Amino acid sequence: MTELSLKAPAAVERPDAETTRARSREVFLPRGARRRTPLSALRERLRWPLGIYTTPVLILLAWEVLARAGAVSKTYAPAPTSIVRSAVELWQQGVLGPDLAISLQRAGIGLAIGLTAGIVSGVLGGLLRSGEYLFNGLVQVLNTIPLLAVLPLMIVWFGIDELTKVLLISFGAGVPMYLNLFAAIRGVDQRLIETARTTGAGTWRLVTRVLVPGALPGFLVGLRFSLAYSVLGLVAAETVNADQGLGFLITQGQTYLQTNQVFVGLVIYSLLGLLADQFVRALERVLLRWRPSYEAS
Amino acid sequence: MSSTIATQPRRQTGVVVEQVVRQFGDRVVLDHLDLTIADEELVILLGPSGCGKSTLLRLLAGLDRPDGGRVEVPARRAIVFQADRLLPWQRVLPNVTLGLHGAGAEQRARDVLAEVGLAGREKAWPKELSGGEAQRVSLARALVSEPELVLLDEPFAALDAITRLRMHDLVRALRTRHQAAMLLVTHDVDEAIALADRIVVMNNGRIGTSHEVHLTAADREASVAREELRARLLEDLGLAGQH
To answer: A278 and A293 in contact (C-beta within 8 Å)?
Structure first.
């Protein structure tokens, strides 16, 4: 009896509710379920075919069009094709090759020293309390000093030779590596460390199986910064005082108003940056396969 | 006092806890607690949330030190936590062999994985496992070292009811093959009755009451004795009349 009397008002109310609130529903089907017409297949393939290079390519295209139309002066911003032509010419003249080689050599040596120092101190600082006390304060201080502000001092100390340039690059690479590696090792989940200890794993196992792989994501972040800052250090070191290298190429281009040549140098610097980023991305894909991470749709 | 005579009988038993005190600031969590677990005995520690069950377990695991009293446990012990705590960057097999050394380690890990019903999943990443599977891996990780004491800290609390029943069957099956004392912490009265040789109820930082359970598997499912035990346990927990 009570059930009936309860139902009646509900039945009256129902059409009311339907009119006020549209009953929207969602249907989920397999991704491939939609009809694949040749048109949709084509659209699928054309959708973001350039990936992350979409924006750079669009900018280059616009630039080329503007330059050809004469909207931007050749002295200020020569067309991309003309920059490529200059690069080829410089290479054929035998200027670009040796300059690039000497720059890469500086970056390589600087990175090797900086990364070694950063990784060794970062590992010691992360694993040992005494290591933290030894390095942390020092690196935190160094971190607040701008890279470019150290340059004059380094020139006074080490002259204008290779040593200054290499040290500037290693300074740029070492500091972010230490900071990220230290934070990464200290950030490894305490519960996992505890669990590993209870299974009877010794210190070596703990370091190699838990701490090192656990710190890997942070290490790769550090590597990304290190590579970027080393390119920055390279530019700074070479632009100020050099008689060969990419920076010298740019300074020379500026002096003789060879804007093309300046752009060639800039393009190579940016390509180095891009290459470094792609390198770290590839490392992440291989080393961090275990990580369930967000993939934007 | 001749200490040799005092320690001699203790070697026979799995766990001896004497007058243990543990406090955090002013809050006394364990207040002169005594507990003994015999070899191959499965003791279930029952108690309301926050009564110090996990604190006691951490003391037994050696993850924490008492502020007073004495804890004696076998050196070969393993612990299973509520969360699986698998290393996400290692596949299943290296997760199980984490604390193992020697040539036969891998084969032993494979055998134990087969025992918990995960043969063929050695190469899976932890992120690919379901909750029940992950917890079985952590059970395998605990058992692979042939421990004399297994500590389980609400190991099935995060699992669904059906998976939990399967895990209970698994624990019973594993007990026939592995000779070890077990201490399982839970707040689930039914889980306690399903598995225990003895149920101890914790109250105010001490072991309040202790119930030996001598029931057959069928009686643990449904019987008058089971209902009586359940009622007494609820009473011990201060929940009498509410269920």
So the answer is: no
Residue ranges of chain B with per-residue pLDDT less than 70: 1-13, 240-243
Tens digit of each residue's pLDDT (9 = 90 or more) over B57-77: 999 998 889 999 899 998 888
CATH number of the structural domain spanning residue A204: 1.10.3720.10
- Establish if A74 belongs to a structural domain: no
Q: B13-87+150-236, which class in CATH?
A: alpha beta
Residue A245 has, within 13 A of its CA and on its CB side, a CA count of 23
Cβ contact B129:B137 at 8 Å: yes
Residue of A nearest to B92 (CA): A290
| Residues in chain B within 8 Å Cβ distance of A198 | 61-63, 77-79
Among chain B, residues having any CB pair with chain A shorter than 8 Å are 61-63, 77-79, 81, 83, 85, 87-90, 94, 98-100, 125-127, 141-142, 145
Is A188 part of a structural domain of the chain? yes
Predicted complex ipTM:
0.80
Residue A13 lies in a domain: no
Residue B139 and residue B155 in contact, taking contact as beta carbons nearer than 8 Å: yes
Q: What are the two backbone dihedrals, phi and then psi, of residue B233, each rounded to the nearest 5 degrees?
A: -65, -40
CB contact under 8 A, A192 and B81: no
Q: What domain range is A243 assigned to?
A: 83-287
Whether residue A276 lies inside any domain: the answer is yes
| CB within 8 Å: A201 and B87 | no
